[in-house]
Design a protein that fits this description.
- This protein is α/β, with parallel strands linked by helices.
- The chain has eight helices and nine strands.
- It has a five-stranded parallel sheet, sandwiched between helices. The chain has a four-stranded mixed sheet with strand order 4-3-6-5.
- A hairpin with a 2-residue loop joins strand 5 and strand 6.
- The structure holds guanosine-5'-monophosphate (5GP).
- Guanosine-5'-monophosphate binds near residues 37 and 101.
Length: about 210
């Protein structure tokens, strides 16, 4: 009905499990495009250029900003991150839904420029549980866990500005809630505006 795809923005604090929820959702919706971001941070072990991120130098990143190549960009934990504009716009034009997994400053920039974008924030069931999940990973030292927790508290302050909140109790439940949110978003009058106008135009010429 609507020829344009839905722009879905997914955020949440580090350790909340948003990547896992998104993976589960994308497995069931393989036609949804996942936007690969650009970043100035160094690749972690196993990360592949072009699949996990486009790893750019500061100069390359700056040059893309100047060419208006980013839909949004922000600084997070000392590194720059940005969503390459072209791939997202091309997919949306083709009617393909696009998911951005980005932090809150970037998400709010997207909403500002594109009010039709749907912003989803993933919360932990409680702050204690987030602490447990972050510490339980065992991959970071105590100081890093503390830093991530204080970042998380700051990020969660922005949750009120999002359209929907998912509380990640279990991955399956959270992915199913995301599916329902996408379904609801595709049935708003705003999203179906073009279709409504087509039917209105038909009504003017039909059955006379
Ligand atoms: P990490 O370095 O752990 O992969 O990501 C750090 C944070 O940057 C995460 O919250 C992630 O969602 C966010 N991020 C990843 N790509 C982008 C992007 O293109 N734009 C913005 N604003 N944030 C991003």
């Amino acid at each position: 009905m609507n020829k344009k795809g839905l722009l879905l923005v997914f955020s949440g604090p580090s350790g909340v499990g948003k990547g896992t929820v998104l993976k589960e959702y994308l497995k069931a919706h393989p036609n949804t495009a996942f936007s690969v971001s650009a970043t100035t941070r160094s690749p972690r072990e196993g990360e592949v250029h072009g699949r996990h991120y486009f790893f750019l130098s500061h100069e390359e990143f700056q040059s893309l900003i100047e060419k208006k190549g980013f839909l949004e960009h922000a600084q997070f934990a000392g590194n720059h991150y940005g969503t390459p504009r072209k791939a997202v716009e091309e997919s949306l034009e083709k009617g393909i839904d696009v998911v951005l997994e980005i932090e809150v400053q970037g998400a709010l920039q997207v909403k500002n420029q594109n009010p039709d974008a749907v912003l989803v924030f993933v919360m932990p069931p409680s702050f204690e549980e987030l602490h447990r999940r972050l510490a339980g990973r065992g991959t970071e030292d105590a100081a890093t866990v503390e830093r991530r927790l204080s970042n998380a508290a700051r990020e969660m302050e922005a949750a009120k500005q999002y359209d929907y909140i998912i509380v990640n109790q279990t991955v399956e439940e959270a992915a199913s809630q995301l599916e329902q949110i996408v379904c609801a978003a595709k049935h708003t009058a705003g999203y179906l505006n073009e279709f409504i106008e087509e039917v209105e135009d038909d009504a003017k010429t039909c059955c006379k």
